Amino acid sequence: MRVCLLNESFPPVLDGTANVVINYAKYLIEDFNSQVIVGTPRYPGGDYSQYPYDVVAYESFSTANVANGYRTGNPFDEKAVSRLVDFRPDLVHSHCPATANIIARLIRDRVDVPIVFTYHTKYDIDMRRIFKFKPMADHIISAMVGNIECCDDVWVVSRGAGESLKAIGYQGDYHVMHNGVDFEKGRVSAEQVAQAVSGYDLPEGIPMFLYVGRLITYKNVPMILDALKKLSDAGQDFRMVFIGKGPDMEMLKEKAAGYGFMDDNDIPGKCIFTGAIYDRDVLRAWNTRADLFIFPSTFDTNGLVVREAAACGLASVLIEGSCAAEDVTDGRNGFKIEESVDAMADFLKEAVKDLDHIHEVGQHAMDEIYMNWRDAVAVAYDRYQYVMEQYKRGAYNNRHRDLTDVMVSATARNMEEQAISRQIRHEIFNDFKDTALGMMDNIQENTSNFAALLSSIGDEIAYDSKKNKEKFLQNIDKLFRD
Asked: pLDDT by residue (tens digit) across 90-116?
């Protein structure tokens, strides 16, 4: 099978979805003798020569200031799209509903193969965080949903993820396809643990809690500190280790310092912020050393870190009803609590009284909820076969279609038939880039002024002349059409 994998991130930017793409490629090649090609926006410093498959990096521009380090790709990079088309894939698997999905549709138009799309995360929350003006955020989210509905087979990583997708307007069917983890099953040696945690104050006999992930408020990370304050006030000593980075890291450090958990000069005490750790073996060592994994996020659609903890025999405390808590049995292979500071504090007060029980639940987690990538990709490969058969039978001919299908088809024909159009699209993209960057800067600097500008379309604000008003409306219309 020849598979084209598309995503908005790939090393040197490594996040959960990039990790998914890497593991899909690895096991499709190793276990099924598949041929793989990957498409991703070009990141400065990206070295793709190390991979046993081609990585096509298409034109992009930086939106790091408003998108947490990510770049926005140009889906109309004719040279890159043509390289992906020339690969002649049997199936395209997109992992992001933005430019990756547009490229997937361009490829489908030219090669006539199905598109699989996986919904990994609640993109709408990020869009509303970036675009404060609600009508604009609504417009972008609606466009993303339309992009998803144009795919042939839609996958979600959990039942909760499917419900989230429906909640933002998606009207099609979906299939739950669980992701795996790349941790080997089993705890690492005491020597490896000692080496990984060397230099940190982690006394034996003092409960150690662990969080791994982005340090951002919408993952409920402040709740951990608030609960630990109650635990500390009750006289219980502990160590809380945060592994990761994010836009709210400094705020969380200040909060920890305010609670007396660390020095104002970032000197660790009861709370330790290690920053990001990319070495998987070192992460396994931290998971082995910890007594309990704390993951109160209701944002995550899958919570792979919970499965990574389980691989090391580490039990997790999760929020009842969250996606991460799916398939977890309370008190058996994990713990579930209500989404409140008091509930977490009360649970921790009881948990530290019987760490042997906590460790026993961790062993059950290892035996019962762990899933490696080899098994996950095997399930996906079987689904690939089914999708291709259904596509050949015409089963997806009634999928959702809208005006963008006509636009994508026309662009695909242009790419195939007119080499000169490459320069035209390049100029269009540069215009879009300048407009988008200017718009984002404007939003960042003064959202209220920008909102007021857009609201001035209404009749409540009079223009000096009809000519000026018509010109303003034309400019706004062109912006959204672009």
From this structure: 999 999 988 899 999 999 999 999 999
